[in-house]
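Journal club prep, notes for RB
We'll compare a predicted complex against what the paper describes. Inputs for the MGD case:
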Amino acid sequence: MGKIKRFTNGTTGGPVFVDVDVEAGKILRMYPMELTEEDAPSWEIEARGKTFTPPRKTTITPVTAAWKSQIYSPKRLLYPMKRVDFDPDGERNEENRGSSGYERISWDEALDIVSKEIIRIKRDYGPGAILSTASSHHLWGNVGYRFSTLFRFMNLAGFTYADHNPDSWEGWHWGGMHNWGFSWRLGNPEQYDLLEDGLQNTEMIVFWSADPETNNGIYSAFESTPRRFWLKELGVKMIFIDPYYNHSARLYADKWFSPRIGTDAALAASIAYVWITEGLYDKEYVATRTHGFERWSEYILGIEDGIPKDPKWGENETGIPAREIKALARDWAAQKTMLGAGGLGGWGGACRATTGNEWARMMICLIAMQGMGKPGINIWSTTQGAPCDEGFFFPGYAEGGIACDTGNSAAGYEFAYRMFANSRPVTNPVNSPQGQHIPRLRIPEAILEGKLEWRGKGFCGANVEAQFQKYEYPAPGYSKIQMYYRYGGSFIGTMTETARYAKMYRTKNLPFAVNQSIWFEGEARFADIILPACTNFERWDISEFANCSGYIPHTYSQCNHRVITLQKKCIEPLGESKSDYEIFSELSKRLGLWEMYTDGGKTDLDWVKQHFYATDLPKGITWEEFFEKGYYIVPNKPKTAKSTPAMRWFAEDREIDTPDWGPMPHEQVKRKGLQTGSGKLEFVSTSLTRFDPDDMERHPVTRYIESWEGHHSAHAAKYPLQAVAPHPRFSFHTMGDCKESHLNELRDHRVLKEDGYRYWIWRLNPKDAAARGIKQHDLIKVYNDRGAVICAAQLTERVPPGTCHTYESCADYQPIGEPGNSPDRAGCINHLNSKRFMTKNSCGMAANSYLVEVEKWEEMK
Ligand SMILES: Nc1nc2c(c(=O)[nH]1)N[C@H]1C(S)=C(S)[C@@H](COP(=O)(O)OP(=O)(O)OC[C@H]3O[C@@H](n4cnc5c(=O)[nH]c(N)nc54)[C@H](O)[C@@H]3O)O[C@H]1N2
Ligand SMILES: Nc1nc2c(c(=O)[nH]1)N[C@H]1C(S)=C(S)[C@@H](COP(=O)(O)OP(=O)(O)OC[C@H]3O[C@@H](n4cnc5c(=O)[nH]c(N)nc54)[C@H](O)[C@@H]3O)O[C@H]1N2
Ligand SMILES: [Mo]
């Protein structure tokens, strides 16, 4: 073994130290960071006679622990490739995509083909005929991020962006935003200083569709685990409401409720019924801090429709006994209770379901009735709100990086101004709200049918009204798509009714498809040209632990320390792979855009340095020290600084005193109040009343709406099992899955069968299994009218009879016959959910639950 040097880097599951054998150019291991005496001290919280302080090290997730195996994966794309029967100057054989094989070509050949196609299409059809999009997540690093490197290139070249739906937020975005605003947080509430508030004041936490031990909020590894143990130590009761007995429930639950899928809003309505009829709510708060309570009570009490939403009614809908609903309601109202609605204080698979917007709205109504913002009472899942200094500026990955496309990042304004004081950012009219757009959930229809209409441009963070704006494809004057430049390849595992995405590639309507990916999996298998990218361990970058600001301000408050890392290039790119930045630089050369793209020849390290100087880092550390040491711990606010718990200002009817970004001054009166029409928490939404008071799928009066894919649905007789499919425990969406990574060894991730395949796991109750003759680890076909997936059965009482559980985000796609028209045995269970938008007037996904039938699958010979 040669000389070993310790590098620093970052991942979606925590920052790491990386030991590299520098002579061999090989990564040996990576592990969490241990902080030293020289690093800034950790916070301390005094609560109920105790002092709490976090461990002085970072944590990592399973996907990070398995990173090395992904870097050296046999599935890595090491050379540019061309589909064997694709000839740009002759037969393109589009219908063979996904079936024909690939041949290795040189970088010159690959880049020449791609750049010639870009030039041809721009000339003949205009830049809007080039469609591009990345997936939601990216390997870690602000400079290499999709908002940065990809957007800088695409904005220069010109393109139509396939807008992302607000996947993580759906119900909060399309529903919750109408009850309390928070558009700049995409419908989720602020979370400042809630850890201290929780430790000092909270007596009970209701985790409703939340599993922080699995999801870790987001990107923050196991930073919040000690907090939950402290809360338990202080005697805080923990209740879990989840169809699945999730992993946090397994560790902490005092009581678990498993409502029938799609009926959470009914459970909430009956809790409200108990509170109203027994007078168990904060009457003064409701009278002064909320809007529409009386009208809403008419709905809850049945004055509106003759159906009182009493616990008996609740039992019929949810399957939870009426006496348990009553007990929960009374216990909740009797104590200072935090509502952990989703894993980040907001989110939760329930918000990505057919009734997601009403669930989120109901959560807001419940916490409004109990006095949100008063000590110990809030929406909080224990994952955000640790003490930190929000005054120290370091941007998140969604603030634009080297593109500084202010239109497509929620916070580019602050960073772009600092980053580009002496050089130019790039924006592109096609990718502006007036340009051409396609929701990524409708890419197949755009290609196959060529015509679309919908409301809302994906993320509508700018204001509430943006949701109502109508869009059409093709936009007036624009051409239809001629080329799809796909960056990453996960959609068959992660979007909805995903056989559509395979079918879409196999048509002449799409003359050219490029895929820029790291691994040969998923959609890469459908491209004409494949461009191999490298991982962030093979290039330079800079980032902060769990900071996705641009989407959500100050998310680093999930972590116990603010850790900013220089992501050092640890090894040379494997094979002939190149960094995404280098690939785009090379393409820019051929398009005559190199000067502009690279800003006169900057390397990725030059950009990292420019980024460093655009932040507050120079106030704490010099570039030279940072370059050597590789990380910086941001000191906390002085101990004497007053804490400003989220929404306390609102509860006390004061001016906002938290570091939050919004609401914009014109949406508030004298910096008091929320973004809603009334400035208050709304049971009846003023914005929905203004927009479409008769929309029964998203009515102004918050209510329970029967699921369009639930026990009341017509097809429930044919497909009697209700499945819940939330985020995978071990992988981070497709990251970490397949690739022959070490995660595959985990028996709760995939099951190895005799045929050498590792199958995706489908969990079902032993009773449902017995009724179908299914035994542990049998291969089963899970199916409905939308498709079929072959999985390995896991029999478990963590789901009640009638309910099944699996995870989403299989990385690969392995149809056993014709792609798009045959069962998949890789595990793309999103074949089975519906492409229908959550409601007719929104463009959100209801990906998380669906109806299926299951039968034993005879192993293929
Ligand atoms: N059933 C169900 N479905 C869901 C959800 C659910 O709750 N239930 N949740 C939804 C949510 S919240 C989300 S966020 C989405 C996530 O769904 P996706 O965003 O589709 O999934 P990711 O795994 O994040 O996809 C990342 C892709 O980008 C590629 N990639 C990553 N880094 C790089 C890079 O540096 N360079 C290049 N060239 N490529 C890179 C990866 O290889 C991968 O193909 O899934 C949604 N789907
Ligand atoms: N390990 C890991 N962590 C992740 C991710 C990952 O892929 N893997 N993804 C990250 C991303 S992009 C996001 S957006 C967040 C998401 O974070 P969350 O949205 O909080 O996580 P989910 O796993 O979708 O859902 C949490 C729990 O809700 C339950 N649930 C689902 N549907 C319902 C329902 O209808 N009612 C009730 N009561 N409960 C329900 C699920 O069983 C699950 O246990 O997680 C992040 N963290
Ligand atoms: Mo997400």
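Talking point for the session: Residues 192-383 form a domain with the Dimethylsulfoxide Reductase; domain 2 fold (CATH 3.40.228.10).
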